[in-house]
Design a protein that fits this description.
This protein has about 260 residues and is an alpha/beta fold. It folds into two domains: about 130 residues, Enolase-like, N-terminal domain (Enolase-like, domain 1), CATH 3.30.390.10; about 90 residues, TIM Barrel, CATH 3.20.20. It contains five helices and ten strands, in the order E-E-E-H-H-H-E-H-E-H-E-E-E-E-E.
Length: about 260
């Protein structure tokens, strides 16, 4: 974890991202504001992982203010109930991210997961250091390949058409979701996509929480994909991968998974 000495900015630089280090009194968090937003979806979005189509998309913008004019932003879940824990962060140095993560983990055990706050704290830390947050994490990449993640279930013909459209738009990889209640139809859609796109597009598969229980002896799935997440152990063409989790990268694929 990256740490920084307490810092103070030159008054003329307050509110800017130009770091000017003056060891001494530490910057402090003065306020944490939550702005809850809702985007109506018309027509409703039939997400593959939801039993009822979504009629709105909710998000919370977390704004962390400091006494030095440096502001951090994070966005994500609702942050419901956070007001009861706000005092654990007010008056603290925002750049002591490890300390705040331990606090958030403890809160998460008893209440809810307020991870958007951590994103806002890293935003402040990057601004203070004058570096992208990716550089603070090691800077292993200067760019990340993007993939098209499909959220709706479609017939094999429709899925093949969508994959070809994604390829035409410049995507080199796609993620397809399978209905756990219709594995045959889902696998048919994956195979149709592979036949249509050939080897020009890498395919990832999300099994939508189709977990296997301990002791299950049902054979794994033959999935013509780079990797599969959220479900049964699957047999990919190159080798057999265990479940990777939908928040991690596909092993060896080079494609980062997204929330």
């Amino acid at each position: 974890m990256v740490g920084f000495e307490p810092f103070k900015r030159d008054p003329a630089q307050r509110g800017s991202t130009d770091a000017h280090w003056q060891p001494g009194a530490a910057v402090k968090i003065t306020a944490i504001r939550l702005d809850r937003m809702r985007l109506p979806l018309d027509p409703p979005f039939p997400a593959a992982w939801d039993p009822v189509p979504r009629r709105a998309f909710d998000a919370t913008l977390v704004t962390v203010a400091t006494d030095e004019g440096v502001t951090g932003y994070g966005s994500g879940d609702t942050m419901d109930g956070f007001a009861a824990f706000e005092g654990l962060f007010l008056g603290q140095d925002p750049c002591q991210v490890a300390r705040h993560v331990r606090t958030l983990e403890t809160i998460g055990f008893h209440a809810s997961r307020y991870w958007p706050l951590e994103a806002a704290l890293w935003d402040i830390t990057g601004k203070v250091a004058g570096l992208p947050v990716a550089a603070l994490f090691g800077g292993a990449r200067t760019s990340i390949p993007a993939y098209a993640s499909f959220g709706e279930l479609k017939s094999p013909a429709q899925r093949a058409e969508a994959v070809l459209a994604a390829r035409a738009a410049g995507f080199r990889a796609v993620k397809i979701r399978i209905d756990r209640a219709d594995l045959a139809g889902g696998l048919a859609a994956v195979r149709a996509a592979r036949e249509a796109a050939g080897d020009q597009v890498e395919i990832m598969v999300d099994l939508n929480q189709g977990w296997r229980m301990p002791g299950d002896i049902v054979p794994g799935l033959d999935v013509p994909a780079v990797w599969a997440c959220c479900g049964w152990r699957n047999r990919c063409p190159a080798r057999t991968w265990p479940d990777t989790g939908c928040c991690g990268s596909g092993p060896g694929s080079g494609w980062p998974a997204a929330r």
